[in-house]
Design a protein that fits this description.
Elements: H1 7-34, H2 36-46, H3 53-75, H4 78-123, H5 128-136, H6 143-155, H7 160-170, H8 174-189, H9 193-211
Helix pairs in contact: 1-3, 2-3, 2-4, 3-4, 4-5, 4-9, 5-6, 6-7, 7-8, 8-9
């Protein structure tokens, strides 16, 4: 505490940071041209991993190259290096996919109860926006974070239905997309939205029972 930093160390750190930033920017340009950036962003969002797509791709590439080089130095065998290196390189995408699948499954399981809670807030006199905000504070993850993101986007000027549609697409949930479509139709033609949400949630529950 209170010690002055070494000027040379600060300069070296700044140079390293600038080099890494430039490498990340270059990775982003290449990935965008190859169409990998949007796919990576979607995968990271579904897995709730707080990384920029360009950063994730850069560090993944650096990790893979370092792993191949280290394996070759240790084994001296090209075939062993390739086999083990491919296995190690496959681990990060598999982990991200596993987390995304688990999160998606939890999200779908929460849908009927979430719709019932939302219907309860509407019956209590809340608007749809107020109901979504209230429910977002009550439900567990991942539904809570998704609804809070919907609320934030709506406050920034994005239409509520559009934000909900994006959440359904992000979570790859046809059931949620179906619920949003029902809300959109109801808001256009009128009717009892609370009863509609309860009906949609009950239909999801009965369908899941039948599937099991």
């Amino acid at each position: 505490y209170g010690a002055e930093g070494d000027g040379e160390d600060d300069t070296n750190g700044a140079t390293t940071s600038a080099f890494i930033q430039r490498a990340v920017d270059l990775t982003e340009e290449i990935a965008e041209r190859q169409g990998l950036l949007a796919k990576t962003e979607g995968a990271l969002e579904r897995a709730a991993m707080p990384l920029r797509a360009a950063e994730a791709l850069f560090f993944y590439g650096a990790f893979s190259l370092a792993a191949f080089a280290l394996l070759f130095l240790l084994s001296g065998n090209v075939m062993t290096t390739v086999v083990v290196g491919v296995v190690l390189a496959a681990i990060p995408p598999l982990v991200a996919n596993f987390k995304a699948k688990r999160r998606q499954k939890a999200f779908v399981a929460q849908l009927p109860d979430t719709l019932a809670l939302l219907a309860g807030t509407l019956r209590a006199g809340y608007s749809l926006m107020q109901g979504v905000e209230a429910v977002s504070q009550e439900v567990d993850e991942p539904m809570g974070s998704e609804l809070r993101r919907v609320v934030t986007e709506s406050r920034l000027g994005r239409p509520l239905e559009e934000s909900l549609d994006s959440s359904a697409e992000r979570m790859s949930s046809p059931d949620f997309a179906w619920a949003v479509m029902a809300v959109r139709i109801q808001r256009e033609v009128g009717g009892n939205l609370a009863e509609l949400l309860l009906t949609v949630g009950d239909t999801m529950t009965q369908r899941e029972r039948l599937r099991r």
